[in-house]
Structure formats: structure tokens, C-alpha cells
Write a structure and sequence with these properties.
This protein is an all-alpha fold. Helix content is 70%, strand content 0%.
């Protein structure tokens, strides 16, 4: 029999649930969350049990402290060094592609020094963009057993259930007080951006058996899954949670990911190589064109013609500022910036324009609330690079930032991971990172298609669809530099990469043993 340590998992959920409750209903500061994150991270490292370390990272994703997660990333770096010393790190194709993308970050930074000498930008970008990737390498080389993998996913779903329950309590209290429930960001601190995305991961995991039957006509052996009734109740709770958070970006990206994801696996699994290549190009061009047209059509339908207009007219905005600043930034990224600085191929360098690493120090030219500027100024001096000063800072000023009545903040603000990656890394960097994403999609869907074990199949399909969802989200904000999202994503991607190396015989052995 395979032991499950059910009592230990329930104890962990109880402890983390108390922490979530405390931060949700009591006025604890982000400083308290940072201190708690440091203590928990150090405790997990001292115990040095990989499953506990990874669960700790997932739990910290629900706390309102991004700085705490950056400290956790330093702990992951130490764990990775220990694994290297013990000769337990294996570099496969996906790991090499990701390392190649990270290497290009350094190369692009060196080439970008001809425009603006700024060595700190590299380290800030590695902190915001690169540090969550450590979860991928640690998870991919963790060597966890099936029971440990199941424990990690059960812990994650338990955290989501606790968060959903807390949101229902808040919503019920609001309904009791006012007679109505307002859809809004229910998270606390920095969690409000990550909670809808983390909830979407849980929804995809619970839907994965049904999706797998539709995709591959495969029936998995339900050894590691949640019993049917409990799974349905949890799925209902998570769907309600996602609805109450009111995140249109995550919801639309999730629907688009499932729609696109249902069609692409046939090209990965069933067709011959040359047919797959030909049709992938045709379908890829069609989907790219359709997604652009479809996105703007949906935006026009949801937000009206005021958002679609390039310039604000009459009383619909502050003066004559362009309301669609994301589109303005895209125009500059494709035209003025590469023409003036000759950066179409190699980019301006990491942390120079548009990314969170660049915006973090640009409080001398871009709007930040007085409290934010005060905190950042104690740690980092104000600095805005030449490219950002010329082509980005004017897109986010106080007058524009404070007027949100006639626009969607997420859709109209200039922040976008996809656009900033193109500007900072150029065509070469974007192609390198795109190659990694493409191979990750292919690997995860193949793992889901060929594995007889329920857990491996669900993990593969979940990461496959989550990657598509995240790819859509990168258009709308700097999500790739949000550790509360990305540590969970990279952790699950690494676990799937580890599961891809498990043999079918091993899966069958564990299935028979558990029965």
C-alpha cells in the first residue's frame, strides 16, 4: 500500500488556513507577511525536505509579500546549489532551452550598454523575472516520489479551497450588510493579482480528466484524484471564487486557452512530422490573426467605443491623453524605438523599458503613490533609462493613473510583459523564449497523452493549458514578473518535467501497489 500521510496534510492545511484567515480579516501589514515568509522559508530549508520546501513556496504565493517570495527564491538557490554538489541536477532539452534564454538576458544587457550604462538593471530583472525560475530547476530535479507529488497538488488545492471559503464568508457578510455582492478584487495585499490565476490552475487540474477524455479518448486510472463528489464541490467553489474576483483577463485567457488547447494536441500526437509542421504554421497564422481581431472585438463589446478610440474626446478622460496606452506602447515598440536605437534584433537590454524591473526605479518620471515612492526610495535610488524616459514614462502619469472611470485599468495601462520582452530582448530573445514555450507545450501534452497514471496525465494537461492561459495574459500586464503567480507556475512546470522521465512500468507498479 502507498501511504498518503493524510493527517499530515490536514495539519498543514489547518496551519496555513489560520495564517490566511489572519491576513484576510485582521490589519496585518506586508511587513508582517515578509517576516513570516522569511521564518517559514528558513524553517523549510533547515528541514531540507524538497516536498516541504515546494509546499512552502505554494503557500507563500497566497501571502501579501512579494519581497518574501524573493527571499524564498534565494532559499531555492541554496537548495539548487546543494543538489548540484550532490550531483542530482540533470539538464535535459527543456532546461537547456531555458538556460539559453537566461543567457541571452546577459548578452542583451551587455549589448544594451551602448545605449545607456546601467548595470543594476540586469540584477533587478534577474530578481523579478529570473528568480521564480529557480522553482522550475529545483522541482525538475527533486526526485520526488508519487506520494509526494500527490501531496503537493493536494496541498495546493487545499489552499485554494481555504481562499475560496474566506471569499465566500466575505461575500456573505457583504450581502448581509448591503443586500448585494460586489464583484471585486477580494485578495489582500499583492495577492489580488495572483489569486484568480492560481484559481484557474486549480480549475484546469480538476477539469483535466474530462478534457483528456475529449482530447485523446483516454480514461485515466483515478488513483490519485479527488473522489467525484468532493471534486465537483471543489470545482464549483473555485469557479465561484474566480467569478467573485472579477478578473476578466484571467477568465478570458482561461476560456481561450481551453479552446485553443483542445485543437492543438492532435498536431503534437497524431500527425506525422511534415504534416504537423505544415498545418501548425497554417493554424498558427490563423490563430494569431483571429486572436488579435477577436481580442479587440471583445474589448470593444465590453468597454465600448471610448476604449477603442486612440484619443479621448470631450468629457470621457483627462484632457487629450491617449486612453489606449498599451496600444501606443506597442506602436512605439514596433516603430520608433528600434528605428532610433537600432535594437530590433538584440533589444534595449533587460530592465530598461516597460518591465517591472525598469518601472520599479522610475518613480522620478512615472507616477507612483506617495507611499510606494517612499518605500522604494529607501531601498533604490530613482533612475529612468534613456529609452524609457523618451518612449514610456509619459504613458503613465498621475493625471492618467488616477482617472479610471472611463477605462479599464488593466487594458488601458501601458504595462505588458509581451511588449516589454520584445523591446528589451529583441527578435532573437523573443524567439529563444518562444522556442522554450513551444517545446514545453509539446512535452506536457505528450506526457498527458502517453501516461497511464492519473496524476502524471493531469499534471501534464494542467501545465499545458496553464501555459496557454499565461501566454494570453502576458499581453495585458507584467505578469511574468509577479512572483505570486510565477513561482507556482514554474514549480508545477518543473514537476511535470520530472514526471516525464518516469517510465510506464513505474506508473503501473504504483497503481497496482495502491490498489
Amino acid at each position: 500500500m502507498v501511504t498518503t500521510n493524510k493527517g499530515i496534510w490536514e495539519q498543514q492545511h489547518l496551519l496555513w488556513g489560520c495564517v490566511f484567515y489572519a491576513f484576510a480579516f485582521y490589519p496585518f501589514s506586508q511587513t508582517a507577511a515578509l517576516g513570516l515568509a522569511i521564518v517559514i522559508s528558513l524553517w523549510a530549508f533547515i528541514r531540507f525536505k524538497i516536498s516541504i520546501i515546494l509546499k512552502t513556496g505554494l503557500g507563500l504565493c497566497f501571502l501579501p509579500s512579494e519581497v518574501g517570495l524573493w527571499f524564498y527564491s534565494l532559499v531555492l538557490l541554496q537548495v539548487l546549489l546543494v543538489l548540484l554538489i550532490r550531483d542530482k541536477v540533470r539538464i535535459n532539452k527543456l532546461s537547456r532551452l531555458l538556460l539559453l534564454s537566461i543567457g541571452w538576458i546577459v548578452v542583451s544587457h551587455i549589448l544594451g550598454q551602448r545605449i545607456d550604462t546601467n548595470w543594476l538593471s540586469l540584477w533587478l530583472f534577474l530578481l523579478t523575472f529570473g528568480s521564480p525560475m529557480l522553482a522550475f530547476f529545483v522541482a525538475a530535479n527533486s526526485g520526488l516520489k508519487l506520494a509526494d507529488l500527490h501531496g503537493i497538488f493536494t496541498f495546493f488545492l487545499g489552499c485554494l479551497a481555504i481562499q475560496g471559503s474566506l471569499i465566500l464568508v466575505k461575500a456573505s457578510h457583504l450581502w448581509w450588510e448591503t443586500g448585494k455582492v460586489t464583484i471585486s478584487d477580494w485578495g489582500f495585499g499583492s495577492t489580488y493579482m495572483s489569486l484568480p490565476f492560481l484559481t484557474a490552475i486549480g480549475i484546469l487540474y480538476l477539469l483535466s480528466p474530462w478534457l483528456r477524455r475529449r482530447l485523446f479518448n483516454r480514461y485515466t486510472v483515478p488513483v490519485w484524484g479527488i473522489p467525484g463528489n468532493k471534486s465537483s464541490l471543489l470545482l464549483l467553489l473555485l469557479c465561484l471564487t474566480l467569478f467573485l474576483t472579477g478578473s476578466k483577463v484571467v477568465l478570458c485567457s482561461l476560456v481561450l486557452a481551453v479552446g485553443v488547447g483542445l485543437g492543438l494536441p492532435t498536431f503534437f500526437v497524431t500527425l506525422h512530422r511534415w504534416i504537423r509542421l505544415k498545418w501548425t504554421i497554417v493554424v498558427g497564422v490563423f490563430l494569431a490573426f483571429s486572436s488579435i481581431v477577436g481580442t479587440w472585438t471583445v474589448v470593444h463589446y465590453l468597454y465600448g467605443s471610448n476604449y477603442m478610440a486612440t484619443w479621448v474626446k470631450g468629457k470621457t478622460g483627462p484632457g487629450q491623453q491617449p486612453v489606449n496606452h498599451k496600444y501606443v506602447f506597442l506602436q512605439r515598440a514596433l516603430g520608433a524605438i528600434p528605428r532610433q536605437f537600432d535594437t530590433l534584433l538584440t533589444g534595449t537590454g533587460p530592465g530598461t523599458v516597460g518591465s517591472r524591473a525598469a518601472n520599479l526605479r522610475a518613480y522620478d518620471t512615472m507616477y507612483k503613490s506617495p507611499s510606494q515612492a517612499d518605500v522604494i526610495s529607501r531601498i533604490l535610488p530613482a533612475y529612468t533609462g534613456l529609452v524609457a524616459r523618451s518612449y514610456f514614462s509619459d504613458l503613465y502619469q498621475e493625471e492618467f493613473a488616477k482617472v479610471a472611470k472611463w477605462r479599464s485599468g488593466t487594458l488601458s495601462q501601458p504595462f505588458s510583459s509581451l511588449i516589454s520582452l520584445f523591446v528589451e530582448f529583441g527578435i532573437v530573445g523573443l524567439l529563444l523564449f518562444g522556442t522554450f514555450v513551444w517545446n514545453l507545450l509539446r512535452t506536457t501534452v505528450e506526457i498527458s497523452a502517453r501516461n497511464v497514471d492519473d496524476l502524471f496525465a493531469r499534471m501534464g494537461l494542467t501545465v499545458y493549458l496553464t501555459t496557454l492561459c499565461l501566454s494570453c495574459m502576458t499581453i495585458f500586464d507584467t505578469y511574468l514578473e509577479r512572483p505570486t503567480l510565477m513561482i507556482a507556475y514554474w514549480l508545477f512546470a518543473g514537476l511535470v518535467l520530472q514526471s516525464g522521465g518516469r517510465s510506464q512500468d513505474e506508473s503501473r507498479t504504483h497503481i497496482l501497489a495502491s490498489n
